[in-house]
Design goal:
Elements: H1 2-18, H2 22-41, E1 45-56, E2 59-60, E3 64-71, E4 76-81, E5 89-93, E6 101-104, E7 115-117, H3 137-152, E8 158-168, E9 171-180, E10 191-197, E11 203-209, H4 221-225, E12 226-238
Antiparallel strand pairs: 1-2, 1-3, 1-12, 3-4, 4-5, 5-6, 6-7, 8-9, 9-10, 10-11, 11-12
């Protein structure tokens, strides 16, 4: 149903967007994000291949790729790294394990006991910009939606472009590029790129860019200012979530 409703929404404003209306493109982004929020909030959970690359402690990290399972209520995350810290596992269930996340290291360290970490503590945040409690598509959509609604209220200083024929991982997508004219319009980001899967109706790629430092080469601006880069592949919406998927006693996890 998400695809049909998105197509209907696109058709309603297609003529305005074809007229290069930046405001209508921004409105379309908001409408799609609102639909994505409704779709995700109505699901128990999903599985996906998630990748991220972020600036942490002023350094852009290497890309990390993980298999993830997410349950919305109670909010729960299971992750297993397939690159970088290959074999590492993480489990977080809100309200369990003293609201700590369990981390089982990979490689030769897999024989060590699992760590119990505060999601917002210094150890957990050494490799991430955001705590595990903010992971997932629903949180991404809600955060993006709040920003785009704020953009709509601005009389000037923001531009948005919509491209209807983008593709990611072999799947057709709508592409949005939002740019700000200066830090006065947005201190947080200079530019945001987002791809929304046409059939699933949810974001599958998000790139956020910061403002450049003095002396940054304009030719390498995006590469020099990449702040956050997230992708979701192989998304499978779940009609129900098996309890064992978020049980630290699951023998397959070996926590």
């Amino acid at each position: 149903g998400a695809e049909d409703e998105l197509e209907d929404g696109v058709e309603v404003v297609r003529r305005s967007i074809d007229g290069a209306s930046a405001r209508m493109a921004l409105l379309m982004n908001v409408l799609m994000l609102e639909k994505a929020e409704a779709v995700l909030a109505g699901l128990p959970g999903y599985t996906a291949t998630f990748s991220k690359q972020e600036v942490v402690a002023d350094e852009l990290t290497d890309e990390q790729v993980m298999q993830v399972k997410i349950r919305h209520e109670p909010f729960s995350v299971y992750m297993k790294w397939t690159t970088g810290h290959k074999g590492r596992q993480l489990l977080y269930v809100r309200g369990q394990n003293e609201n700590r996340m369990l981390v089982k290291l990979g490689g030769w360290k897999k024989k060590l006991p699992a760590l119990k970490l505060d999601p917002s503590g210094s150890t957990a945040m050494k490799e991430s910009r955001y705590p595990i409690t903010r992971l997932g598509l629903l949180e991404l959509v809600r955060e993006s939606l709040a920003i785009r609604r704020g953009d709509l209220e601005r009389p000037e200083g923001v531009r948005c472009r919509l491209s209807e024929n983008q593709e990611f991982d072999g799947r057709p997508c709508y592409g949005f590029v939002v740019e700000y004219t200066g830090p006065g319009a947005s201190k947080r980001y200079r530019k945001t790129e987002m791809l929304i899967d046409r059939k699933l109706g949810v974001p599958v790629v998000v790139r956020n860019y910061s403002w450049p430092a003095v002396g940054t080469d304009a030719a390498d601006l995006d590469a020099a200012t990449l702040l956050e880069f997230y992708t979701y592949r192989n998304i499978k919406f779940l009609s129900e979530v098996a309890g064992g998927d978020f049980d630290h006693g699951n023998k397959a996890y070996r926590f």
